[in-house]
Design a protein that fits this description.
six-stranded antiparallel sheet, about 325 residues, elongated, 7 helices, alpha+beta
Length: about 325
């Protein structure tokens, strides 16, 4: 490795926080102001290390008798030979040394949707969150209309949404370099609208055609939509790894589905979310054919027979237990 040399200070994730050029060696490193490279780290010594060439002409970083030493791969060493990819730790500071000939990766294609930055997606996201919150309250509200109550609910939903997206924006700033708060708001709003639309459409389909599967297992689709929303949050932070994030989201859906089904089975003895369809809509929505009273009585008779058999089995088991005691 030949001059000029560049000493880089790295974050824990490997990003370059600071870079300084040196045209000649040695380069003394430490907290003292007489060093060529000064560290603002209380865990480093006044004269901590020196960057120099060894007897064979190889670039090394040598410890100058500091208490915490020069650490490489978790080991404190008297000196560390350096290549362009070697990372050493002095105190709490991570350093890397490269020269002008170090090869860099090829330029990446810019896949960032710059049009969806700033105020436009933020306002769209806030509008979608407010729409979802207001419609959800309206569909479940059994009381008379109260504007103040609706405004409070919508304001609470917007506040919770901004907190949620603020956490994602902070992660985006730490790991992606930009907060993209507006885009995270738009992702949240779109995800909530998709979930609300699914709940409404599935309820209508379930009631119109007596398709109880939509109400019994519809929560699995809601879970998948929620995980899809998380996938787009993550994709905004790490756009270079869409396949890896898709696999992670798929595993999250699978794990969540298993937990939901196990919870249902543990609480009710069934995998389904509910025993019967609880959706009630206007009769005009019904599309399935009506059943006669005789059909109803026939189905009720079958249900009664099953209930009597289950009861008899339970009573017999209790008697057997009493005899055993």
């Amino acid at each position: 490795m030949t001059a000029p040399y560049y000493i880089e200070v790295l974050s824990r994730s490997g990003e370059v926080l600071h870079r300084q050029r040196f045209d000649q060696l040695p380069v003394h490193i430490g907290r003292g102001y007489h060093n060529e490279f000064i560290l603002d780290d209380a865990h480093t010594a006044e004269r901590h290390a020196v960057l120099e060439l060894d007897a064979d002409g190889h670039l090394v970083m040598r410890d100058l008798g500091s208490q915490n030493g020069v650490v490489h791969l978790g080991k404190k060493l008297p000196q560390v030979p350096l290549s362009g990819s070697t990372v050493v730790r002095l105190g709490h500071t991570r350093l890397r040394v490269r020269n002008a000939d170090f090869p860099v990766p090829p330029e990446l294609a810019d896949t960032t949707m710059h049009a969806w930055e700033g105020g436009v997606p933020a306002l769209a996201g806030l509008a979608l969150i407010a729409l979802f919150t207001g419609v959800d309250v309206a569909l479940s509200d059994a009381e008379s209309f109260n504007a103040i109550r609706y405004l409070l609910v919508v304001a609470s939903g917007l506040g919770a949404g901004m907190v949620w997206c603020g956490v994602w924006a902070l992660a985006n700033r730490l790991f992606g370099g930009h907060a993209r708060f507006g885009r995270h708001l738009f992702i949240l709003g779109s995800g909530l609208i998709a979930i609300g639309a699914w709940k409404t459409i599935s309820s209508i389909l379930a009631y119109a055609w007596s398709a109880e599967i939509f109400t019994r297992y519809g929560n699995l689709v809601t879970l998948a939509l929620g995980c899809g929303m998380v996938f787009f949050h993550l994709l905004t932070i790490l756009p270079r790894h869409p396949r890896r994030l898709a696999v992670m989201s798929g595993l999250l859906v699978a794990a969540g589905s298993v937990l939901l089904l196990m919870t249902n089975y543990q609480s009710t003895g069934r995998l389904s979310n509910e025993l019967y369809m609880s959706v009630l809509l206007p009769p005009a929505v019904r599309q399935s054919p009506d059943h006669t009273v005789d059909d109803f009585m026939l189905q009720a008779g079958k249900l009664k027979s099953q209930a009597d058999a289950a009861k008899a089995k339970t009573v017999k088991a209790e008697l057997d237990d009493d005899d055993g005691d």
